[in-house]
Design a protein that fits this description.
- β3 and β4 form a beta hairpin.
- The protein is of the alpha/beta class and 365 residues long.
- The radius of gyration is 24 Å and the shape is globular.
- Strands 1, 2, 3, 4, 5 and 11 form a six-stranded mixed sheet that branches.
- It starts with a helix and ends with a strand.
- The chain binds prephenic acid.
- The site of prephenic acid (PRE) has 12 residues, from α1, α2 and α3.
- It is found in: Cytoplasm.
- GO terms for molecular function: chorismate mutase activity; prephenate dehydratase activity.
Amino acid sequence: MTDEKARLSELREEIDSLDQQIMKLISARAACAQEVAHVKMAANPGQDVFFYRPEREAQVLRRIKEENPGPLPAEEMARLFREIMSACLALEKPMHIAFLGPLGTFTQAAALKHFGHSVISVPMPAIDEVFREVESGSAHYGVVPVENSTEGMVNHTLDMFMSSPLKICGEVQLRIHHHLMVSPKFKDQQITRIYSHQQSFAQCRQWLDSHRAGVERITVSSNAEAARRAAEEPGSAAIAGDMAAELYGMDLLASRIEDRPDNTTRFLIIGREEVEASGQDKSSILVSMRNKPGALYQLLEPFHREGISLTRIETRPSPSGTWAYVFYIDFEGHMEDALARKVLAEIDDEAVELKRLGSYPIGVL
Ligand SMILES: O=C(O)C(=O)C[C@]1(C(=O)O)C=C[C@@H](O)C=C1
């Protein structure tokens, strides 16, 4: 045996032995999670039991990232534990997650990044149908896009919160990489049209203008739908992401063609219950104020006075016409924190309406 072979065989024996230990430990962890499920069910007989605990998951993943000894990067270690916890949760209760479909969208990628791959992800044709699916109890949670770093807010999602009783239970950010893709069947054909979603075209405008200037751009309902069409039509290409490329067996002609390399979309997890504090949280509210001078100042001043940072404020037109302004506000911390309670009580006194959309862990992954 050569030196290389001997050393490799030694190292592989060590890997086999470590794998066995890892397997035993993961199994012991899974048995523990099963026991957690029994405790939860025994404590809430005949009631809705919330097996998924976003605040606990965020704490576990944060600790893993902090304590990761290397050589694997902390992000990678957290991703592995994300999948272990996802499998443990599926043992407790298989989770149905509704997302803005079809299959292969960035929203599906966000859902799997947040929940791991042991959930049952269910595509919905529109954002309001994701809300309805969760409201009716057909899905445990939903995932919807809320803002893109290049394109701004997804107003449809913000507006849904005006009428929906659902709570925000989490957030997840996804780096959005767009690729120009064709079906391998039609690879030699000249491309005469490119399909994509309107936002994806907007995010790749400069690249398209300099690399595919004369080619017709056809807007479709999602970039997964774009890939599906291009997979069937000779002379067509699509701009879409990795999941869609994989789903439809497409070849990439050019990858990462987005104009801004930091192009990121933020998604919200929506559910039926409130989330306890995890230690690093964010909260969202909707407020309508009377149309009078100083209304916005009156709304923001208590946050400033109590030292609570606002991370976002958006104005939306009132749907009914009875609200003069509707402000969508994100701030740091949990709504049950003493200072936040004080600020919200003050706002409640002044506002036409204050709607608490939820407190949730700041995205870890
Ligand atoms: O701690 C719990 O409540 C659990 O159910 C265990 C566990 C885990 O595997 O660590 C699983 C699912 C929950 O979402 C959070 C954590």
